[in-house]
Structures are given as C-alpha cells and as structure tokens.
Amino acid sequence: MKSRIYTIISGHFKSWYRSKSNIFWTIAFPLLLIVLFGAIFGSGSTRFDLYLQNQDLNGNIPTPLSQGYVNVLNQTGAFNLHMVAAEQPDPLTFVKNDAQLHNRGQRLLVVPLNFSATVASGKNATIQLFMDQSDQASASLRGIVNSVTVSYAAAIAGAPDHLFVQQVGIVTRNIRYIDFFIPGVIGMTLLTTGVFGAVNTNGRYRELKIIKKLATTPLSKIEWILGMVGYQMILATISLVVILFFGYAIFGVTATIDIYTVGLVVAAALLFPGIGMVLANFVREAESADAAANAITFPMMFLAGTFWPRETLPDIMKVIANFMPLTYVNDGLRDALIYAQPAQALTNTIIALGLAAFFIVLGSLLMNWKEE
Amino acid sequence: MSDTLAAPLPGQSDRVVQVESLSKKYGDNVAVNGISFNLTKGEVFAFLGPNGAGKTTTVEILECLRNPTGGRALVLGYDVSKRSDQAEIRKRIGVLPQDFNAIDRLTVRENIDYFGAMFKQQLDADKLIELVDLKDKRDAQFKTLSGGLKQRVGLAVSLVNDPAVVFLDEPTTGLDPRARRDVWGVIERLKGQGKTVFLTTHYMDEAEYLADIVSIIDHGQIIATGTPDQLIDTHGGKKTLIIRDAGQEGISQLPPGLPKAELRNAGDIAIPLNNGELTNILISLAQTPLHDKEIEVRRPTLDDVFLNLTGRRVSEEGN
After folding, report:
1. pLDDT, tens digit (0-9, with 9 covering 90-100), for A185-203
2. How far is residue B5 from each of residues A155, B32, B37, measured CA to CA in Å?
3. I want to staple A280 with a disulfide (CB 3.0 to 4.6 A). Which of A202, B72, B106, B287 is the partner?
4. CATH code: domain of residue A111
C-alpha cells in the first residue's frame, strides 16, 4: 500500500505539472521577472561608483584644497561621486546600506580632517580608500585614484609624495540589484505557491467535495496537511533550484546554499500554506478565497522588500513590513544565499520558523475536516 | 424491518444501518427530528425527499461527517457517535458525496488509485473501471469528462475499498436523462452484486426504479416507509384514466355518471378510477366523440404518494 501522505503529495504534484498556468506562475513568471528587472535595473555603469567623505571642513564649507581634490577627481569622468556628509559618524556602514539601496559599488574615499592644514604645512597627508580587494574594479579604480592624487599633490605643493592613498581593505560583497532581487523572487514564489496552493487545495477541494470525500476515508486531517506541506516543500525546492540556476546562468549570480537556506525553505513550506489555510477557512468560497489570497500576497510582496529594499519605503510602511512574514523569509534568504551573513540568516530563519509553526498550527486548528 | 435498536456485534449483523430517534439541531433549527429506520444487507434503500428535508444531514451523520444531537445510529454495528467506532466505520463504507468531483488533472485511473490509497485494502482499479463502463476513458483526465462520466468515476471511487455499504448522496442530480440512466445502470449492477446501497434522492422515479425500500422524509421527519409498491398502494391514491388532447370540449362530451374528471395542463382529461370500473368507462366512452382519442391508464407514482402525504409536489420546491 502506498503511503497516504505520498499519495497526497503525488496527486498535488501531478495536478501541478499538468497545468500550464501553474508552471507559468511557479517557474516561467519568476524567471520572466528576473529577466525584466535584471535588464531594467541591472545594467552597470561604465563609471565607478565612489563614495566620498570630505572631513576637512571650515565651518560647514569644505576647505579650498580638499574641495579642489574632489573637483579633480570628478573631472576625470571616471567616477560617479556620491558625497557622504562629514558629520556621518560611521561612514562605512552608511555606504554599505546606501550602496545596497541604490545598487552601487561599496567604495569609500575619506579626505581626512586637517587635510588642508597638513598639506599646507608641507607634511604628508593620507587619504583612505576603503574597498574590497575582491572588487573587480579595485585595480583600475585604485590606479585612477592614485594618479589623480599624485598629480594633485604635484600641482598644489610641487611635491607628489606629500599626498598618498592608503588602501583599506573591507570585506564586502559588491551587491548588484540582481543579487538583491533573486532571493526576493524566490521569496515571492514561495509566498504565492504556498498561499495559493493552500487556498486552492483547501478552498477549491472543499467546493468540489474532495475534502468531504477524503474525510469519509481513514485519511486523517494531519496526514492531509502533511501531504500538502510535503508537496509545498518539493515546489519550493524546485523554485529555488531553477531560479538560482537561472540567475547564475544569465546574470552570474553566485549563491551559497547552506543550512539556513534549507531552514527557510522548510519554514516557507509551512508558513505560506498555513496562511493560505487560515484564509481558506475564513473565506469559504473558493473564488473569494482566491481574491483574499491576492489581497494578502500582493501588498506583502511589495512591502516585504521583494523588488526594492525596504529602506526606500516611507517610515510607516517600514513598520508594517516588520509584521509581514515574507520580510523574514526574504531577508533570511538574502543573508544566507547572497550576503553570507550567518548570524542574521539564523535570526531570520528562527523568526520564519516561529511564524511557520504559528500559522500551520492555526490553519490546522481552523480547518474543518468534518462538516459542522 | 424492526423498530428496536438491538446491539449486534460489529460487522456480524444483517442490519447494516440502524437508526433510532436520530436528531440533529443547529441552534433552533431542527434538521433531523427523531427519525428511525433500518437498512438490511443487500438492500437498496432510498431516502426520498425535497431539498432541505434532512437527507444529506442524515447520510452525513451515518458517514461520521456530522455528530448527531440526539438518538443513536449504528453502521455495521459501530456507533457513529464514538470516536473509536468512527475509524472502523470509515474503513468499511463507500461514499459518494453530493456534487462530488474527483481531482481535475488526474486521470480516471489515477483518481481511483488516489482514493484507493486511503484504504488498506483496495479493489483493482481496472475492474472498477470496467464496472462503471469507463474503459475507453481510463487515461482521460477527469476534467475532460462529461457530467455523467464524472459521476461514474465518483461511483467507482466510492467502491474502491469494497465497502460493506455504499452511501450515494443525490447521485444523478444535474445530469441529463441519458446520463441518469447510465448511473442507474451502474447502481443496478451493484444491486446485482448484492451490495448494500443507501441512496438519497429527490427524484421520485429514481427511488421507484432503484430502491427495494423507500423512506420519505420531509421537514426532518420520516413520513412513510415501505417498498415502492407498498407506498403507492397505501398512499398513492387511485389509478387515473387519461384521455389525451381532449381539451375543455372533451369534458362536455364525457358520458354522464363518470367520476369527476379534471383537465390537466396539456389538454388531457384525467378521470380517477375505482377498482373494476375501467371496462364500463371504456364501453361508455366508445359511444362518444372521444372514442378515437388516445387513452391510457396511469398508475400512481411516488410523486403522488408525496403529494398525498404532504399536500405538495417535490417539483414545486424548485427541485
């Protein structure tokens, strides 16, 4: 005898792959989004992004010498300079967040306090360039900065060795938009397949009396739910593998699959069907449940940082995003797959698993197996 | 049939279903009001009544989908109210819920296997496909089938565990006449195999054609039980002589001394017949201008039984 749970999983899976629209929404649509968004936002500039903090101020105004240096850098046409306010106490963190937000390279040049006075007094001044050694642009960017600096020093003091650039290595990944986007697409796919899958199987199957029929057999409610969750895990794994492979093949996105990724996939396969089951029980009619699923998933998709970083949202929306389960799945997937931040991935995985346990238990309790 | 609810050993009795004073209330609404009946092994039992009469509620109590609020019901000797007994009942019954659809994108064969996998023991899917006459559609996806064929898949699915009793809830509702006949054919085959069948229907002809025993239920109460013939003989009223297409003019042409005739909608004249009157009436009609009209004798049906017992027809209630 085949196990009942296996039969449920296999029934769902066959129904899934035999439906062209299912295949479209689960696989083709996310890939299409990746291509579209990747093409629109992913193209890099031929100029190097460079953040610049000029700490050498006179009052609130940059000193002429430091401003001159900035102007020379700008005139090379090699950089997109992004100024960091001098009073910014932790410019590195600021750059990391802002670069991620705007899909820029994480590189920071700091013109130090007293730059002008030091140069004027004939002493050596040091300009710090914070950059990741693994940054593909590092060699050429360092070369340009160095030559600009030497020329500037020669021009202002006739002594090219009075100014030098100290390169400070920082460990960062130069996150492109597409790197940011791909985990978001995975999160979005897990959300939609999970919520709609559960709404469909628990709403539509109820309407078609399939659940009523199953309730008259020895199948238990728990076996039914486990079958559904097992099916969702298979779908989630397929989505993850297909999207990551596609991201790698087309955009060269390299991802790390670790224990947190597995934990997040498990969490998503419980969490989103759980939400779908709760919906299907409150909104009994399959069509209305479908509309309710749309009403839940679409705002969640946008607020939870699927397409754009949440930092771009208004403050109130940021607060709301904290209550969106997808936020933790998206963040966790980014931490695990792309940013290689195990500590943050762990936190997000734990939160996602906690939410998953809550929703799957609530959904299971609410689900009417018998007809009362 | 017996009125007492003995306590047979589970699975050992010929009484497949025993129901006594069964009630189901939803707040103040009484869906089933103290009904009692028995179903014996090998019988086709029809639960007949209009929509909302309490048929589905009753059958779903017997299927362990709903809990009764009063009375007692045993299926195969197991008590539907006891959790441990419910597990035993589920192993042994076959159910076709009202408006059931199998899984759209699975084939006929896959659907039978799917529902079969829920049971420890299952019948061979191909034999079931043969029984419901769906060999040609074995590998067709359920969604591609017509309503009648879908219902036959439902019947096959309800038999997949070789059940001791099959509950068929309104198995032909919404089907066209031909598809209804096909479903009846399958139920007749089950009957031929000695299966015990509990059928709910609001179609009088269906109950009359298929059932050994009919219980008529209305407003949650059983108002009559018996074989179709017994019910018709007892509650159906007189046979009727019908003169086709005679119209209002025909009434005036009737010979004197006949029972009171009435004109029915299509222009037919209906004359109630007492026993032994038929020959005399025919002789007297032969002397009138109605002698060349088409004449038939109509036997009362279960529809008449329902009308006589409740004062209304099932069809008047939108069925």
Report:
1. 999 999 999 999 888 888 8
2. 112, 18, 9
3. A202
4. 3.40.1710.10
Give residue-wise pLDDT tens across range B278-297. 888 888 888 888 888 899 99
Contact: A7, B117; criterion CB under 8 Å: yes
Domains annotated for chain B, with CATH where assigned, are 15-234 (3.40.50.300), 238-299 (3.30.70)
Query: What are the pLDDT digits (tens) for A48-68?
Result: 788 999 999 888 889 988 898
Q: Are the beta carbons of A223 and A4 closer than 8 angstroms?
A: yes
Residues β-bridged to residue B197: B44, B166
Q: Which of A1, A14, A213 to mutate to test the interface with B (most CBs of B within 10 A)?
A: A213
B94-129, pLDDT tens digit by residue?
999 999 999 999 999 999 999 999 999 889 999 999
* Residue ranges with strand state E in chain A: 48-54, 57-58, 61-62, 79-84, 108-111, 125-131, 163-169
Query: From the list B66, B87, B122, which residue is nearest A372 (CB)?
Result: B66
Residue B6 scores a pLDDT above 60 = no
SS3 content of chain A, % helix, strand, coil (to 5): 65, 10, 25
How many Å apart are CA A346 and CA A332, to the nearest integer?
7
* Closest-CA distance of chain B to residue A104, Å: 47
* A35 lies in the same domain as A68: no
